[in-house]
């Protein structure tokens, strides 16, 4: 009787593919393989299609990849890389896997701005320095089930790609066999086997990680995370070669969908639903239930906050501004619930809105990953913006962490306000950006939310906020001022502040409150005489900022 034994756990070995002795002789990459990606692309290949990548594109875990100046569509693709272990020539699909010595993680970076340059060969698009990071470890292929592997990609700590090899259109053995019909595959050659859905565009400052593992194999071996830092190059493409060229088709394919790319629905312009000229109103829009294209929010007037007006607002408490709005019939102008992480700081700026919707797994897979609405909101921040997030008062997950807080600060944001939670709260506080949050929570965004819309009308902390509303915050809380009322509210609130400060001094001197706060005719006349001794308005700060 023969005793059965379990297969041994595959060995895992660290390997630096950039070292001369380990650099692949050739890197062959596959266009489409995962059903999820094929569904996104809308193309069903009958046979595998390939392109070559330069050996100098190989990079290590921890290296940086540069986005050339003047380009916009640098996209990541988490993949499983096959490493050929012995010479293969005209092998069969059944034999193909036996010629693979190991697997590792790969990121098949591509610059969609240059896809037009080489008519499908992808030379300039895919072979830039650093565009093929591999590693950090190799899992031995022996005792691995090629249909039992998994690939995952993270951007700034959030999973954006996850799929297994169980349902690949072109199994690994077939790829080795197909390529070996015409070319000799040699020891060390690498085959990139395609990427699943979720590939999208990365931005300078992003950290993209890819891991390949065999979760059902003995010991669940893993390559570890392959880390790439995205940076902005100082060098644009030179004018003696193809320069960047982008259209909406490239944006849709790079981002993964029209929604993710911030584009209008397909056919909207042809149907007469979208503005057709550059002279059309720039308001953000949507298609209503009857199919009409309608504006959903006004565009900010960024000239409102003059230095003089800033100086006045800086002298006014949020409570006083709120009282003036109430006098004008606006009773619900405060964002209730969120509290500041830094005491003693004021906030003033233009609202930039972001809305989350409750997580639904099928929608999160399409809209939650890549350069989603959350990242688009933070990455498009302008100086004096206050990012206001509608998270439905849901405190069971974070809507902001330290990396995005830092990105918002670097872009010039004055604050972030969320009626949801924040994570990494100590690190967020250390960034220094003022943040108002409803709670702290360690979970990532995807536990409860899908980032859905940037620049729409939202509800945060029980009040309505539109892009361009004026946001003022202090230790008491946050008030939202409609731009059309800003000047009169601030002028009257400033006068009220002067009167309240004067009344305080009178009480401090021993006068009773009755008849003086609020003032009767006699006290009002006394205040009016005092007011004549004061300047009409505070002076702006030297840098034009309150």
From TrEMBL:
Domain of life: Bacteria
Gene3D superfamilies: Fumarylacetoacetase-like, C-terminal domain, Ribonuclease E inhibitor RraA/RraA-like
Chain positions recorded as Mg(2+) binding sites: 424
Residue span of region Disordered: 1-20, 235-256, 270-301
Compositionally biased tracts (Low complexity): 270-288
Residues binding substrate, per UniProt: 401-404, 423
Keywords, in A-Z order: Magnesium, Metal-binding
InterPro entries from the UniProt entry: Fumarylacetoacetase-like_C, Fumarylacetoacetase_C_sf, RraA/RraA-like, RraA/RraA-like_sf
Domain Fumarylacetoacetase-like C-terminal: 26-227
Compositional bias (Polar residues): 1-16
Pfam families referenced in this protein's UniProt entry, alphabetically: FAA_hydrolase, RraA-like
CDD domains for this protein: RraA_family
Molecular function as annotated in GO: catalytic activity; metal ion binding
Cofactor(s) demanded: Mg(2+)
Family annotation (NCBIfam families): PRK08245.1 (NF006093), PRK12764.1 (NF009399)
Protein name according to UniProt: 2-keto-4-pentenoate hydratase/2-oxohepta-3-ene-1,7-dioic acid hydratase in catechol pathway/regulator of RNase E activity RraA
Originating organism: Micrococcus flavus
């Amino acid at each position: 009787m023969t005793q059965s034994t379990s297969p041994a756990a595959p060995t895992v070995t660290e390997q630096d593919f950039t070292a001369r002795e380990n650099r692949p002789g050739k890197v062959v990459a596959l266009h489409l393989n995962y059903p999820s990606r094929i569904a996104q692309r809308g193309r069903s290949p009958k046979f595998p299609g390939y392109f070559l990548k330069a050996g100098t594109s190989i990079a290590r875990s921890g290296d940086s990849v540069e986005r050339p100046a003047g380009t916009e569509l640098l996209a990541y693709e988490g993949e499983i890389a096959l490493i050929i272990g012995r010479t293969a020539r005209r092998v069969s699909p059944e034999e193909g896997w036996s010629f693979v010595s190991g697997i590792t993680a790969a990121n098949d970076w591509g610059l969609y701005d240059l896809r037009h340059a080489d008519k499908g060969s992808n030379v300039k698009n895919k072979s830039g320095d650093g565009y093929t990071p591999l590693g950090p470890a190799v899992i031995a292929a022996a005792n691995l089930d090629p249909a039992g592997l998994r690939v995952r990609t993270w951007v700034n700590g959030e999973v954006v790609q996850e799929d297994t090899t169980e349902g690949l259109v072109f199994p690994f053995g077939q790829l080795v066999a197909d390529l070996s019909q015409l070319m000799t595959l040699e020891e060390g050659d690498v085959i990139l086997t395609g990427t699943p859905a979720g590939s999208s565009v990365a931005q300078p400052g992003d950290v993209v990680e890819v891991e390949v593992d065999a979760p059902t194999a003995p010991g669940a071996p893993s390559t570890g995370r392959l880390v790439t830092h995205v940076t902005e190059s100082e060098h644009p493409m030179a004018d003696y070669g193809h320069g960047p060229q982008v259209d909406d088709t490239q944006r849709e394919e790079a981002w993964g969908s029209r929604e993710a790319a911030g584009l209008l629905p397909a056919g909207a312009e042809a149907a007469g639903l979208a503005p057709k000229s550059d002279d059309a109103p720039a308001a953000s829009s949507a298609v209503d239930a009857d199919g009409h294209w309608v504006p959903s929010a006004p565009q900010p007037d960024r000239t409102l906050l003059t230095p003089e007006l800033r100086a006045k607002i800086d002298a006014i408490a949020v409570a006083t501004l709120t009282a003036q709005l109430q006098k004008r019939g606006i009773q619900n102008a405060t964002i209730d619930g969120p509290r500041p992480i830094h005491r003693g700081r004021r906030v003033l700026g233009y609202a930039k809105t972001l809305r989350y919707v409750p997580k639904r797994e099928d929608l999160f897979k399409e809209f939650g990953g890549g350069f989603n609405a959350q990242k688009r909101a933070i990455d498009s921040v302008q100086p004096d913006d206050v990012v206001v997030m509608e998270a439905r008062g849901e405190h069971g997950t974070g809507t902001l962490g330290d990396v995005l807080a830092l990105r918002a600060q670097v872009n010039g944001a004055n604050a972030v306000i969320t009626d949801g939670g924040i994570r990494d709260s100590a690190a967020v506080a250390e960034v220094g950006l003022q943040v108002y949050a409803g709670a702290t929570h360690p979970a990532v965004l995807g536990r409860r939310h899908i980032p859905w819309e940037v620049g729409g009308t939202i509800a945060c902390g029980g009040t309505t906020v539109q892009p361009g509303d004026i946001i003022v915050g202090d230790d008491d809380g946050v008030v939202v001022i409609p731009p059309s009322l800003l000047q009169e509210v601030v002028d009257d609130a400033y006068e009220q502040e002067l009167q309240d400060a004067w009344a305080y001094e009178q009480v401090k001197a021993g006068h009773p409150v009755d008849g003086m706060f609020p003032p009767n005719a006699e006290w009002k006349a006394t205040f009016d005489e005092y007011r004549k001794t004061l300047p009409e308005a505070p002076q702006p700060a030297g840098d034009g900022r309150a």
